[in-house]
Every structure is written in structure tokens, then in C-alpha cells.
Design goal:
heterotrimer; A alpha/beta (685); B mainly alpha (297); C mainly alpha (317); A: 685 residues; alpha/beta; Rossmann fold; 3 domains; eight-stranded mixed sheet; C: 317 residues; mainly alpha; 13 helices; ATP hydrolysis activity (chain A); transport (chain A); Peptide/nickel transport system ATP-binding protein (chain A); Oligopep_ABC_C (chain A); ABC_transporter-like_ATP-bd (chain A)
């Protein structure tokens, strides 16, 4: 490991790098937004630069100003609310902020291209792909329509879209999310730009598709010598693809430098803690996750000194004065008074008592037993009098969960994991199968039986913004189950609500607040308190931490683990993030296109996955370690997720499986026990 | 990190004093509200404000132009037009508000219920709504008036209110349903279902309060529509009947025969209708901007 | 696309049947029936026998279900029955008046769309400037001014300014286009103002929404000229919801004409309807209601078909 690193150091000659003029230099940029609540300085004196041919990653949590910075470069801020109030943006020596709009327009799409986060909404739904692709060619390069078509075919080929001639005549809705993002890349590449800015280009995509898109972008930018600015919150992506790294916090750059050096020894306590708080696939799972307590400051009224100081465990008196972003050696800069002492000066959080339950005890009677569960949705099809088509959202799903245990349920979008969760809650009616909860079948329970059982099964949802009724105070939300279901008296309910709030780490005074007056993490805590109010035996956590920023995500994961240790509640933990699932679960179920692919104990599954799909999933997720990432070969799983309306015959995974043979199309592989307690549905094992 | 530090001036006003906050953010809407309040005051205190008895016939003043005695002139029976406009506000606002309230509330409840249950209940209710929507508003109101006739109780024609509120119902049902469908898909509704609450509890406590914004917007918009509709029906002689003062009525009958010689007979009542409807629309538009988070920056 | 059209047409049938059912049975609960109203208005003493025989002549003594069946059968064969008041076939009563009403409605629609689309677009693009304020006040006023009063004002204005009033007798277009238009343009303006206001408001809000879409940002990021961003990327998306409003408001335009025809002394469908209602001539009323429902449902169909043509998501969906 040490030799690999020093080899990298030699490869990047500091002197030579500094001599090269940056292609793009953002200098002391300040951006303000006017809102109904006042003026917000979203970007406050930010500077970074990127040299020709490099890939710079701009990293930070939501609201740190990374996207606003990128939009400012393009001068595409939503006006009149947002405006640049200071600084320069030098591109090839010219200040973009001083250019007349006509020259700026001529530059967009020609010299600087941008790729956005949401492939589903970034293309115009009523124009053909061909038209949208030809547009920059005709405008900037003066091509004729025929020339533009030839070039468009070539571009679609470059981004890996087959059958280009036909695809050019199609509309965006006929493309999948991954394919649309490929089209966006083709549009970006159209005029051979010098710089591409990609704003969270894969955040909306599944992990296997994310790997395809990122490999494609890396490959093309290297081959065509395009400079790349990659905006992301995912440290794994940074580790794999970035040369340079700039970390942003609360509207400022707190650290900048070559990616591998920053990863190896971060110089800012925020970077240090951010890297420690990510649940990781490549390291043995320890006890509680390290977290960054507290919240980022309010940018309407930022603290006067170091903006991270209120959350910093390495804070000293001098932190009351604002630290400048200054060189700290090794071609790096950091905005911390104690940069030279980092990362050592940030103490590791004292390891809390191992929160997670011990490894699986011998199966007694499980709390929840799901057998042969299927759910088919009828959706209107095409044609006269609309023949209904069937989506098999879940097919023959079986698993069981013991008391006080956590079962992880992972898979990409459309795999049926959420449907399974909703079936267990009986928010959907199952088509077939049984769901035995403590011996009683939820699938067949009458309305009255179900009502009785609902106090024992609760749910926590993904989106903290929409999982609480905006018209009810936090207190009313938590007291509702107490008074309406447990028939508690008002005074008693108030006391109980206060103790529940304390239990989830919120001050009881928060009961008076409305959801919009809280942060995402606080709302998620309220959601947990609501679920706990009924004193359930079992909670379905449907992507319960997916919408949260890394530092907050860690807090909630720890809270869930602590509550389990304390109350002995069982979880069905549904998520798409393999590392998060690993952190919380004792057993893991992997699903794909409505079917279970593999079931195993957590450690076994992550150490020795059997099913080719599980292997691909684990392979696709980059880990936040540049050394490991660069040593790994490209391993994107080929192909697209098939439509759930027309799943492949036989094994549903066979169309993308590297090990598929002819028989896979004929046999639906049964889930069978390959090793003790380790089941997989594949005939090739 | 307290909530108040997060807010600037407008947000703070919004919570501390919603009325002042509304005036600051939506001056046009506030102007509309002022007009509405003035009209409402005039309607309530008509017997104090109005210079004459609205039904008093004075043959000496027949068709007299605006003057000191009759600021807005007099009609073919010599009745004071200003007085009749002030009393007409009573009719217009009462019928406008009650019809819109009835139509939006019943329609809204149907819409929320339809969206909550979905499936067959939704299908049947929506078919019914489709059918009733195929009648143009005034046509349906006319047919209902023809069928039920008139039945004034305490000076309020209940059947006329029914005739105006029935065409409003399906329209309100449709708008509220689509808003409620979005609420139905919210995880907090699923959480309530998972909590095992009764259907009526979920509909009334979790769904209805969250469609309050579109409901209020509809309510104001349909008050405007109802005032216009009442005027149209009265103009056609099928709404409020003589000698009761109503704006639409003041434009019909003798007015429509003599207005070329005595234009004040139609000018001022028409202005009254337009001003009232304009004020409600202005207020409704601003209310929508104010309540719709999409329009907040 | 054809299959889609066929399906939509098939779906119209239950709606129209529902309209027929509601109309028919609602009109049958009228307390005082036409026979009494008509005979008593002639003055003099009317015997029960006379009423009964008149009822029998009109077929009103048969069971309601039979009457409904006959009406349905008539509707299918386009035999709409006989007016109870004038004694002439309903089809004939409608036939002589429909041309005028349709012409006024079409003129109003054309005027309205020609004003509304540019007005709404400009209002949206100059949002929160004085141009927008003027346009918005103009459109909110359009919703507020009753069309029949506006009609009176127009007549009054023509009289005081030009000392001219529009002709009162109807001249068919092909007899004398000028005379025809000089008569019908005024009611078209009177009802078209509201129509224009509704459409302009829709166009405005729809363009404001579309301009916030991600694909508009994409177009700008490609370096597309701003006017092309509006013309090519925004307008096509923004006009889709506007088409719905244009279509549905056309059906309601006829509702507006119900009142406005009185003011201009036009003998059209609207006036016929008001007369039929005030005389409880429910054979005529139900025929007219069905006619309006057919217009409404057909406009819906046309809007949906247009969506199919203009929106690829519907076309290939």
C-alpha cells in the first residue's frame, strides 16, 4: 500500500502541475439568493481551479453550494433570485462574469458543456433525440442538418447507444434513465468542448447503471482530453474518478488538493469526520458509526468564526476567528487553524457499546415469516379497450425475521423491495402467499384483526419531508397513536411523547414545532418516535436513511441500532445502499426484478457472495479509497434493467449475467441452500 | 438554530401576523380584500348606509339622471339606483358565498373521499363527475331552476343557491380530488394507515387539512363565479325576482329597453358586478400565490 | 392512434347516456307541467279532461321508462321530437338557429386565441414588470365583466360614438358577408373577451411553469439562443395545457351565448334554450341539453386527439 502511494506521488510532479495554467479558475466567488425569508449567501468567497485534462471533484453535503458554484460558471443561476455578487471566473484567461451575454451563450455547449442530475427531466419531452442532439452542432458549428445527423450517429455510438439511426427519431420517454444520461453526455460532447461540468450525474441512477455511466465519462474524457468537473456527494466516486478534490462546507471550500493525498491524510476536521462517517463496504463493520453531531449552519446568519467550529471536536479558542484557505504543503490547501495537526487532532469517538445484536442465534420461532409472497399489479396497456398488462412486482418471495433481529432487503429500483415492505404492512393486498406475523397471517387478516395487529407493526419512511403531516405539530403526530390507538389520557400522552422525543435524541420542547421548522434528520427522528409510540415488535424501515446527508445518515443509523439493542425491536431494513444495509443487518436478502436472488448472513454475503448479481452489485459500488479503487479493473455490469412489464424468461437476471448460458433462459432457478444458511437462486453455482 | 433565526422579515410576519404578511407580499390581493370588505360592510349595514328604501317607487324621479338626490340616477320606477346597488350587494354576497361554500364543501369532500379510497369508489364518482361536467354551468343552473322553482326562506332563495352550487360541485370535486391524490401518495398517509386509524379519521385529520389551500382558492374563485351566475340568471328573469334588489335584475326588463336613453341604469349595476367579481378574482389569485409553495421563492 | 380514437369515442357513449338519464328524469319532476302552463296562459277555464287529452296527445301519460326509451330511439335516428310550445319538430327549431350560434362562437374563439396566446406569452416572459401587470389586470377584468353587460356597453358605445347600431335582422353569411359580420362581430367580442382572458391566464401560468423545467436549463446550457429557447423548447410544451382550456372553454362559450344573445336580439340556440326553460318545454330543453353535451364531449375528444398528435408521450404511450 505504501509503495503504491509513493508511486502515485512521483507521478504527479508538484512543480510541473503548478506551472500548468488552469483551464478554469474560480476566484473568490460569492453568490447570493433573495428569498422570502431574507438574503442567503449560498457561496461565500469560493476559489478552486482545474487544469487541462484533469478531473476535479467538488464534494460536499446538500446546501454546501457546490451546484450553485457550477451553475455560476455557466451563468445559468435561476434569476432574479440568485446572482453573483463578487469574484471572477477565469476560463482560458477570460473572465466569464464580464462577458456580454451573447459571447457567453456562444461559449455554452461549445467550450463548456454541462450534464445535470435528473436525466428524466433534463431532456425536452416533445422534441426528438436527434433534434436535441443536432441543436448545438447546427448552432455552434454551423453544420447542415445532414452533417449534424452523421455526427449525431457517431456521437450516439461513442456513448454506447446502439441502433443510432432509429434512436435519433425517438423521444426521451422511449429511453431509460441510464440511456437518457448517455444522451446528455452525447449532447455535452457534441462540439468537442474543453470542459464538461457534471452535476451529480449518477445520483438518480441505480448503482450498476451508475458504474456504466461513470466509466463511460472517464473513458471519453481521457480519450478526448476533456477536463471534467464532477460534482458529487459520494466519496466512493471521488476516490475512483477524481485527480483533484475540493471539499465544500457551508458555502466555502474547506480543503483542496490531489485526491489521493486528501483521502490518505485529510487536513480539515470536516473532511476527516466526513470520511469516517461513511459506512464502508471495504472495511470490517465495527460498532457504532462515527458521526458529525449537529447541523450545518444557517447561511442566512452564519457564525462569525470557522463555520465548522460549532460541530468540531478539535475546536480551540482561535477557531472564533475565520480561518483562511491557505497552502498546507503537498500542493494542498485547507481552511483550518490546526490543519497541520490533522487528521490526528480529531479524536475518534469513543467506541460505543456494540449496538447491533449478536450474530444470529439458532432459529427459534421467527417473528415474521414470509412464504411464497407475490404481488401483481395490473396496469393499463395499449390498444383498443386497453388490455391490462401485469407487472409482477414481487414473485415467490420468502424470508423470515427473528425477534430483535434486522433483515436487510437490498436491490435496485424496480426490484420489488418496497412492494414487499408495503405487503408486510398490508398497505397493498398480496396476490399470493402468506405473511405470518407471530403465527397470524397478515395476508388473510380481517379488517378488525389487522387493526389490532397494527399496533405491533410500524413503519419508517424514506422521505423525512413527506412522512410527517405538515399540518400537525410534532407533538400531535407522536400523541396520535397514543390517544387514538392506546387510549391514553391526554396528560399521560404528553409525558409519554416527551420521553419518546428524548429517546430519539430530540429535546421535548420540539413537540411544539411543525415539521417545516425542522431539519431532515430531526424529522426522521420524529418519524422514528412516531413508530416507537405504539411499542411495536417490528418496524419496516423503507429506505429510512437514503434521503439524508452522510453525516446525518450516520446519526440515524446509530439511533436505530441503539433502539434495537434497548427495546429488542426487529427491523425489515429496506435500502439500495449495500454499505448501509451491511452496517445494520444480521441477515440480508438480495432482490432483482421481483425475485429473491440470494439470502445469507451479513458477513457471509459480503465476504463470499454466491449469486452473480450480488457480486455485480458489490463490484459496482465504489469504495472511498483511491488506492483500492485505482487498482480495480472497470467492472460495470452490462445492459439495462429489463422492463418489469416484460421480464426475461427463465432467470430474470440472465440478460445481464456474465455467467449466463442457454439453460438460464429456460429454467426459473429455485432458491436453494448452497451452504448452511446461505441460499441463492442460480443454476450456475 | 431556533426557528426564528431561519426566517427573514416576510416569513416572520407570515407566522406572527398572517394578515399583515399577506398585505406585504400581495398588495394587489390585499386591495381586492379591501373591496370585498367594503362591499360586505355596505351589505350588512345597507339600511344605515343606503339613502332610500330599495323598493320605494317614486314616479317623479322616473329615469332621472345622476343628481344630488339620486347620485347614480333612478330607474324606470324612480327607485334610487345607489340604494338598490347597496342592497343588491346583500343578495350577491349572500348567494355568492353560500352557493360557493356549499358547492366547494360538498364537492371537496367527494373529491377527498374519492381520492382516498381509489379503485371502484373513485371510478364511479369520477364517471358521475364527468357526466355532470358535460353540462355548461349556466345550462345546468337553468335546468335546476326550471325544475325546482323558487323557495325564499328569510329572504334567501334556497333553490337558487342549490341551482348555483350544483354545477360548482363536480368542478370542485375534480380539482380537490387531484390535489388529494397527491396527498394520498404521501408517506404520512401510509403511516396513518399503518397506524390502524379509521378511514374517517384519516380522511378528516390527515387528508382534508392538507387540501385546505386549494379549497380556499376554489372557494374564493367560485364566489366570483356564483355572483356572475346569479347576475346572469336574474338578468334572464330566472334568478332573483322583482321587486327584490339584485344587480343582474337591474340590467334586465325596463333597463334593457331604456338603457340607450338612460345609460346610468345599466352602467352602475354592471360596474358593481364587475367590481365584486374582479375583487374576488384578484384576492383568489393572490391567495393562490400566497398558499402555493411552488410560487414561493 | 386510430385504436385510441375508437376507444375514446366508445367512452363517450356512457357519458352521453348519463347526461340523457339525468336530464330526462330531472325534467320529469317539474311540479307544474307544460300542459297546464300552456293552457292556463291562454286564459279561460281548463277542464281536467282537456288537460288529460292534451297530455295523451303529447304522449305524457305513458310510463316514464317508455317515454325515455322512445326518446333514446329518437335520438339515435336524429328524431328529437316535437316542441311542446310551438308544435314544430325540435330538429327544425334547432336547425334554423344553429348556424348563427356556431358562427358567433367560432368568431369569438378565433378572436380570443389570437389575442390570448401572444398576450399570455408576453405576460409570462415579462413577469412582474408593468407589461405583466397591465396584461393581468386586463385578463382578470375579462373574468369579471359579465358578457351581457359588455354587450350592452358595446351597443351603447357604437351608438354614442358612431351614431350607428348593429343590424337587428339576421343575414346569412353567404347572402351578404359584410352585413352578416357587422351584426355578429359584436356579440363575438362580448363573449370572446372572457374566453381570451381564461386562455391568456392559462398560457401565462403554463409558460412560467415550463420555463422552470430542467430541459429549459439544458437548452440554455447548450448555448441555444434565448428566443429559440422560448419558441422551440418552451412553447410546444406550454401550449399543451392551453389547448385543453381552449377546447373546453369553447363548449362553455355556448353557455355564455345563452345570455348574450338576448342583448343583441339574436335568435340563436341560447335564446331558444332560455325560452324553452321559461316555458317548461322540456322536450326542447332535453334536446338542447343533449346537443350541448355532445358539443362538450366532442371538444374533449378533439383536445385528446390533438394531444395525441402534439405530445409524443401520448402518441407512443
Amino acid at each position: 500500500m505504501i509503495t503504491a502511494l509513493s508511486a502515485l506521488d512521483v507521478g504527479q510532479d508538484t512543480e510541473a502541475r503548478d506551472a500548468a495554467l488552469p483551464l478554469l479558475a474560480v476566484e473568490n466567488l460569492t453568490v447570493e439568493f433573495t428569498t422570502a425569508s431574507g438574503t442567503l449567501r449560498a457561496v461565500d468567497g469560493v476559489s478552486w481551479s482545474v487544469r487541462p485534462g484533469e478531473t476535479l471533484a467538488l464534494v460536499g453535503e446538500s446546501g454546501c453550494g457546490k451546484s450553485v458554484t457550477a451553475l455560476s460558471v455557466m451563468r445559468l443561476l435561476a434569476r432574479p433570485a440568485g446572482r453573483v455578487t463578487g469574484g471572477r471566473i477565469l476560463f482560458g484567461g477570460r473572465d466569464l462574469l464580464a462577458l456580454p451575454e451573447s459571447e457567453m451563450r456562444a461559449l455554452r455547449g461549445r467550450d463548456i458543456a454541462m450534464i445535470f442530475q435528473e436525466p428524466m427531466t433534463s431532456l425536452n419531452p416533445v422534441l426528438t433525440i436527434g433534434m436535441q442532439l443536432a441543436e448545438p452542432l447546427i448552432i455552434h458549428l454551423g453544420m447542415s442538418e445532414a452533417q449534424a445527423r452523421v455526427r449525431s450517429v457517431e456521437l450516439l455510438g461513442m456513448v454506447g447507444i446502439p441502433d443510432a439511426e432509429r434512436r435519433l427519431r425517438q423521444y426521451p420517454h422511449q429511453f431509460s434513465g441510464g440511456m437518457r444520461q448517455r444522451v446528455m453526455i452525447a449532447i455535452g460532447l457534441a462540439c468537442d468542448p474543453k470542459l464538461i461540468i457534471a452535476d451529480e450525474p449518477t445520483t438518480a441512477l441505480d448503482v450498476t447503471i451508475q458504474a456504466q455511466i461513470l466509466e463511460l465519462m472517464k473513458d471519453l474524457s481521457r480519450r478526448l482530453g476533456i477536463t471534467l468537473v464532477l460534482i458529487t456527494h459520494n466519496l466512493g466516486i471521488v476516490a475512483r474518478y477524481a485527480d483533484q478534490l475540493a471539499v465544500m462546507y457551508a458555502g466555502r471550500v474547506v480543503e483542496e488538493g490531489p485526491a489521493d493525498r486528501v483521502f490518505r491524510a485529510p487536513r480539515h476536521p470536516y473532511t476527516v469526520r466526513l470520511m469516517r462517517s461513511v459506512p464502508r463496504l471495504d472495511q470490517a463493520r465495527g460498532g457504532a458509526l462515527e458521526t458529525i453531531e449537529g447541523l450545518p449552519p444557517n447561511l442566512m446568519d452564519p457564525p462569525s468564526g470557522c463555520r465548522f467550529a460549532p460541530r468540531c471536536t478539535a475546536r480551540i479558542p482561535v477557531c472564533d476567528s475565520d480561518p483562511a484557505l491557505r497552502p498546507v504543503g503537498d500542493a494542498r490547501r485547507a481552511a483550518c487553524h490546526r490543519a497541520e495537526e490533522m487528521p490526528g487532532a480529531v479524536p475518534l469517538t469513543a467506541a460505543r457499546p456494540a449496538a447491533a445484536a449478536p450474530a444470529l442465534a439458532a432459529e427459534v420461532t421467527p417473528l415474521l415469516q414470509v412464504r411464497g409472497l407475490s404481488k401483481h399489479f395490473a396496469v393499463p396497456g395499449r390498444g383498443l379497450f386497453g388490455k391490462m398488462a401485469t407487472v409482477r412486482a414481487a414473485e415467490e418471495v420468502s424470508f423470515s425475521i427473528g425477534r430483535g433481529e434486522t433483515l436487510g432487503l437490498v436491490g435496485e429500483s424496480g426490484c420489488g423491495k418496497t412492494t414487499v415492505g408495503r405487503l408486510v404492512l398490508r398497505l397493498e393486498e398480496p396476490t399470493r402467499g402468506e405473511i405470518l406475523f407471530d403465527g397470524k397471517d397478515i395476508a388473510k387478516a380481517s379488517a378488525a384483526e389487522m387493526r389490532a395487529m397494527r399496533t405491533r407493526i410500524q413503519v419508517i419512511f424514506q422521505d423525512p419531508y413527506s412522512s410527517l403531516n405538515p399540518r400537525m405539530t410534532v407533538g400531535a403526530t407522536i400523541r396520535e397513536p397514543l390517544t387514538y390507538r392506546l387510549n391514553m389520557a391526554t396528560a399521560e400522552a404528553h409525558d409519554r411523547a416527551a420521553s419518546l422525543l428524548r429517546q430519539v435524541g430530540l429535546p421535548p420542547e420540539m413537540a411544539e414545532r411543525y415539521p417545516h421548522q425542522m431539519s431532515g434528520g430531526q424529522r426522521q427522528r420524529v418519524g422514528i418516535a412516531r413508530a416507537l409510540a405504539m411499542e411495536p415488535d417490528f418496524i419496516v424501515c423503507d429506505e429510512a436513511v437514503s434521503a439524508l446527508d452522510v453525516s446525518v445518515q450516520g446519526q440515524i443509523i446509530n439511533l436505530l441500532a441503539e433502539l434495537q439493542a434497548e427495546l429488542g425491536v426487529a427491523y425489515l431494513f429496506i435500502a439500495h445502499d449495500l454499505a448501509v444495509v451491511r452496517h445494520l443487518s444480521q441477515r440480508v436478502v438480495v432482490m432483482y426484478l421481483g425475485r429473491v436472488m440470494e439470502v445469507a448472513d451479513r458477513d457471509e454475503l459480503y465476504a463470499a457472495p454466491l449469486h452473480p448479481y450480488t457480486q455485480a452489485l458489490l463490484d459496482s459500488a465504489p469504495v472511498p479509497d483511491p488506492v483500492k479503487e485505482r487498482a480495480r479493473a472497470p467492472r460495470a455490469l452490462r445492459g439495462e434493467l429489463p422492463s418489469p412489464l416484460a421480464p426475461p424468461s427463465g432467470c430474470v437476471f440472465r440478460t445481464r449475467c456474465p455467467k449466463a448460458i442457454r439453460e438460464c433462459a429456460e429454467i426459473i432457478p429455485p432458491l436453494r441452500e448452497i451452504r448452511p444458511g446461505h441460499l441463492a437462486a442460480c443454476i450456475r453455482i | 438554530m431556533s426557528a426564528s433565526t431561519r426566517d427573514g422579515p416576510v416569513m416572520a410576519w407570515r407566522r406572527r401576523n398572517p394578515v399583515l404578511g399577506f398585505i406585504m407580499a400581495q398588495p394587489l390581493g390585499a386591495a381586492g380584500l379591501v373591496v370585498i370588505l367594503v362591499m360586505a360592510a355596505a351589505a350588512i349595514f345597507a339600511n344605515v348606509v343606503a339613502p332610500y328604501d330599495p323598493e320605494a317607487i317614486d314616479f317623479l324621479a322616473m329615469l332621472s339622471p345622476p343628481s344630488m338626490e339620486h347620485p347614480l340616477g333612478a330607474d324606470a320606477f324612480g327607485r334610487d339606483i345607489l340604494t338598490r346597488i347597496i342592497y343588491g350587494a346583500r343578495t350577491a354576497l349572500t348567494i355568492g358565498f353560500l352557493s360557493s361554500f356549499l358547492g366547494c364543501t360538498i364537492g371537496g369532500l367527494l373529491g377527498v373521499t374519492s381520492a382516498y379510497f381509489g379503485g371502484r369508489v373513485d371510478l364511479i364518482l369520477q364517471r358521475f363527475v364527468d357526466i355532470v361536467l358535460s353540462f355548461p354551468i349556466i345550462v345546468l343552473a337553468l335546468v335546476v331552476v326550471a325544475v325546482v322553482g323558487h323557495r325564499p326562506i328569510m329572504g334567501i332563495d334556497l333553490n337558487l343557491i342549490a341551482a348555483i352550487s350544483i354545477p360548482i360541485m363536480p368542478r370542485a370535486a375534480r380539482v380537490i380530488r387531484s390535489a388529494a391524490l397527491a396527498v394520498r401518495a404521501m408517506p404520512y398517509v401510509d403511516a396513518a394507515r399503518a397506524g390502524g386509524y379509521t378511514h374517517s379519521h384519516i380522511i378528516l385529520r390527515h387528508m382534508a387539512p392538507n387540501v385546505l389551500a386549494p379549497y380556499l382558492i376554489l372557494l374564493t374563485a367560485y364566489i366570483a363565479q356564483a355572483i356572475l351566475l346569479e347576475a346572469s340568471l336574474s338578468f334572464l328573469g330566472l334568478g332573483v325576482s322583482e321587486p327584490k334588489p339584485a344587480w343582474g335584475l337591474m340590467l334586465s326588463g325596463d333597463s334593457s329597453n331604456f338603457y340607450q336613453e338612460a345609460p346610468w341604469m345599466i352602467l352602475f349595476p354592471g360596474l358593481a358586478i364587475s367590481l365584486a367579481v374582479f375583487a374576488f378574482n384578484l384576492f383568489g389569485d393572490s391567495l393562490r400565490d400566497w398558499l402555493d409553495p411552488k410560487f414561493r421563492t | 392512434m386510430l385504436a385510441y380514437a375508437a376507444r375514446r369515442i366508445a367512452l363517450m357513449i356512457p357519458t352521453l347516456l348519463g347526461v340523457a338519464l339525468i336530464t330526462f328524469f330531472m325534467l320529469r319532476v317539474v311540479p307544474g307541467d307544460i300542459v297546464e302552463v300552456k293552457m292556463r296562459s291562454d286564459g279561460g277555464y281548463v277542464t281536467q279532461e282537456l288537460l288529460a287529452s292534451e297530455r295523451a296527445r303529447l304522449g305524457l301519460d305513458r310510463p316514464l321508462v317508455t317515454q325515455f326509451g322512445d326518446w333514446m330511439q329518437g335520438l339515435v335516428t336524429l328524431d328529437l321530437g316535437t316542441s311542446m310550445w310551438t308544435g314544430r319538430p325540435v330538429a327544425e327549431e334547432i336547425g334554423v338557429r344553429i348556424g348563427l350560434t356556431v358562427q358567433v362562437a367560432l368568431m369569438a374563439a378565433v378572436i380570443a386565441v389570437l389575442i390570448a396566446v401572444p398576450l399570455g406569452t408576453i405576460s409570462a416572459l415579462f413577469r412582474d414588470t408593468w407589461i405583466d401587470y397591465v396584461a393581468r389586470i386586463f385578463t382578470i377584468a375579462g373574468l369579471a365583466v359579465p358578457s351581457f353587460w359588455l354587450g350592452m356597453l358595446i351597443i351603447l358605445g357604437l351608438l354614442t360614438v358612431f351614431h350607428w347600431s348593429p343590424p337587428v335582422t339576421y343575414t346569412p353569411f353567404f347572402e351578404s358577408p359584410l352585413k352578416n359580420i357587422s351584426q355578429l362581430i359584436w356579440p363575438a367580442l362580448a363573449v370572446g373577451y372572457r374566453y381570451a382572458a381564461v386562455v391568456a391566464r392559462m398560457v401565462r401560468s403554463s409558460i412560467i411553469e415550463v420555463m422552470k423545467e430542467d430541459y429549459i436549463r439544458t437548452a440554455r446550457a447548450k448555448g441555444v439562443f434565448e428566443r429559440m429557447v422560448v419558441a422551440r423548447h418552451a412553447m410546444r410544451n406550454a401550449l399543451l395545457p392551453a389547448i385543453t382550456v381552449i377546447g373546453l372553454e369553447f363548449a362553455f362559450l355556448i353557455g355564455g351565448l345563452v345570455v348574450t344573445e338576448q342583448v343583441f336580439n339574436l335568435n340563436g340556440i341560447g335564446r331558444l334554450f332560455v325560452e324553452a326553460v321559461s316555458r317548461s318545454d322540456f322536450i326542447l330543453v332535453q334536446a338542447l341539453v343533449m346537443l350541448l353535451a355532445v358539443v362538450f364531449v366532442s371538444m374533449n375528444l378533439i383536445v385528446d386527439m390533438l394531444y395525441g398528435v402534439l405530445d409524443p408521450r401520448v402518441r407512443h404511450g
